[in-house]
Design brief:
The chain is α/β, with parallel strands linked by helices. Strands 2-1-3-4-5-11 form a six-stranded parallel sheet, sandwiched between helices. β6, α9 and β7 form a beta-alpha-beta unit. α8 packs parallel to α9. The protein is elongated.
């Protein structure tokens, strides 16, 4: 029969539509003989189940919503999030789910809250992942508290069925300070995150803990901030160079910030690392190929996405699964941009 439907298969097999959908999607609760009868009818007629048929039995769309925004509007070109999304896509796809990306179209300036929850429910997604947005976003908090399965990336947003994944940012930043102090540096400046994201704040915290552990203090003018772009790293380093006296090392909470800081230092005639050591965080691709190659902290970006995807699918399929907080280990990568202190 051409264009065989799930209803046709149910009639031929003498079972309900729900039983057919369960059998086609390999769910429990179907007698094995019945399952084989349904599969044989479907195969003989070239039937392929669609998402609507699946939903009749499972009340699931098998679609995961992705809310992705970032402060610099780099979208899918973002060094970090493009690789996180790759890992997330693989984990979700392997489990048999599709992705639906939500845009920001339709928001107006006078909106008090973002309607993430309404939009997710309207599209009947089984769960959502949040990434790149403000950790205090009212809409993000609303969806986390709603009971909808939800995982966040680098946002400490929790709820009845909402958890998050993050790198060990505090420990990574402490490792940078330990490394620089081990090279003889005591005057270490920080280029932080002006948007106070959780990763930015955690990396600053790790820096401060590391400095205290070594009995070191930081003058106020050695705290600068940027927006994780190379241009803002250049701007922050230029401001730091104007103040004086100069530090012997700079730790930037993102690689693009560190690259911009190196640009500004080199323009000033400073040698890296002979006059100034520089370290970043992320280990983006260009970190290994720039000159000098950048000392940084490696984040396992695809693994972060994979862990978030796997946890979200578990939340969707197991109502008893407690929402997790997952920490992915970081690794210090020493390259040419850090060297022995000149003082």
């Amino acid at each position: 029969m051409a264009h065989l439907t799930i209803h046709d298969i149910a009639l031929r097999a003498g079972v309900s539509i729900g039983t057919v959908s369960k059998a086609l999607n390999n769910y429990k609760g179907v007698n094995e003989a019945t399952r084989q009868r349904i599969l044989t009818i479907a195969a003989e007629n070239g039937f392929r189940a669609n998402s609507l048929a699946r939903g009749l039995a499972t009340k699931q769309s098998r679609v995961i919503g992705v809310f992705f925004n970032d402060s610099i509007n780099s979208g899918f070109l973002h060094h970090y999030f493009q690789r996180v999304l790759q890992g997330f896509k693989v984990a979700v796809g392997t489990a048999g789910y599709d992705l639906l990306f939500f845009t920001n179209a339709g928001f107006t300036e006078d909106r008090v809250t973002n309607d993430y929850l309404d939009r997710a429910r309207h599209r009947s997604v089984d769960g959502v992942v949040l990434m790149g947005m403000d950790r205090f976003d009212v809409g993000a908090r609303e969806i986390a508290c709603s009971g909808m399965p939800c995982m966040s990336i680098d946002m400490d947003v929790t709820g009845p069925r909402a958890g998050y994944v993050q790198s060990t940012n505090v420990e990574g930043a402490r490792a940078v300070v330990d490394h620089l102090v081990g090279l003889g540096h005591r005057d270490i400046a920080l280029i932080g995150d002006r948007y106070q994201s959780k990763p930015g704040m955690d990396r600053r915290l790790g820096y401060e803990i590391g400095m205290r552990e070594h009995g070191l203090t930081t003058p106020p003018h050695w705290f600068c901030a940027g927006d994780f772009t190379r241009a803002s790293g250049h701007e922050a380093m230029t401001a730091l160079l104007r103040e004086g006296p100069l530090p012997t090392a700079v730790f930037a909470v993102g690689d693009d910030l560190a690259l911009g800081a190196m640009d500004a230092a080199l323009e000033r005639g400073l040698r890296i690392p002979e006059d100034l050591s520089v370290a970043g965080f992320d280990d983006i691709e260009v970190a290994a190929s720039c000159s000098p190659a950048l000392t940084t902290v490696r984040q396992e970006m695809e693994l972060i996405g994979e862990r978030a995807g796997s946890a979200l699918i578990r939340l969707v399929e197991d109502e008893g699964y407690p929402p997790p907080v997952i920490n992915v280990e970081t690794t210090l990568v020493v390259r040419e941009s850090s060297g022995t202190s000149c003082k």
